[in-house]
User: Which sequence fits this backbone?
């Protein structure tokens, strides 16, 4: 079974890309789909009705959706394998821009919208840096020069990443993504699956419910106003 993990900011076109993948492989491969979102999601219902494939969804609630994905992925893989799936697609909301849902033995796909601003890729961090493929959508809505700048900014974050430019609704240009999926090895049962990269540093007192403002009222990982331009890095 091949594992594909798709992430990206809201309204970037993640489900449109997913729909094109399913449309291409339907009839050739058995496909299962998992949607991870925060409070509400309808994509699983839409894809199940449109393509008659097995789907599930998980709500993360107060948790980061990328963290939730890691917690449920082992069970999800077991579910997909029991269905004798050839391709398992996981679509994560990926909201905080510090986390990354990608794991080893998977194809990590980040979906970015070309209309989100030319400097937007520089704000995405691990969501781009740890992905294998960046699918840039809505390229028909920007100029050629804007597309080129957006592409270069994406490469600035992840120089080795493969870039696919598309209007995902029509599926133009996605043949390059399809080739990456076809070349993806199946999951090796005798090899573990682990999170790529280092997750965010621990939890702070705000994470566990302390509501007072000001660093003086907190302990653990704290930030002061002075030096706010520096990015905090844990060990």
Assistant:
């Amino acid at each position: 079974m091949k594992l594909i993990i798709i992430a990206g900011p809201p309204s970037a076109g993640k489900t449109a890309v997913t729909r094109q993948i399913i449309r291409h492989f339907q009839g050739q491969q058995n496909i299962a789909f998992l949607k991870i979102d925060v409070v509400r999601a309808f994509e699983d219902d839409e894809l199940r009705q449109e393509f008659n494939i097995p789907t599930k969804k998980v709500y993360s609630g107060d948790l980061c959706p990328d963290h939730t994905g890691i917690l449920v992925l082992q069970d999800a893989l077991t579910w997909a394998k029991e269905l004798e799936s050839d391709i398992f697609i996981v679509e994560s909301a990926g909201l905080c821009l510090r986390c990354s849902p990608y794991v080893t033995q998977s194809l990590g796909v980040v979906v970015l919208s070309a209309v989100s601003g030319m400097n937007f890729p520089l704000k995405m961090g691990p969501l781009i840096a740890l992905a294998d493929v960046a699918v840039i959508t809505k390229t028909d809505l920007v100029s050629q020069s804007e597309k080129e700048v957006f592409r270069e900014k994406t490469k600035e974050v992840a120089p080795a990443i493969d870039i696919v430019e598309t209007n995902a609704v029509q599926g133009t240009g996605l043949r390059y993504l399809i080739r990456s999926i076809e070349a993806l090895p199946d999951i090796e049962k005798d090899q573990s699956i682990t999170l790529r990269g280092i997750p965010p540093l621990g939890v702070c007192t705000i994470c566990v419910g302390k509501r007072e403002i000001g660093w003086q009222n907190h302990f653990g990982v704290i930030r002061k106003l002075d030096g706010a331009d520096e990015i905090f890095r844990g060990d």
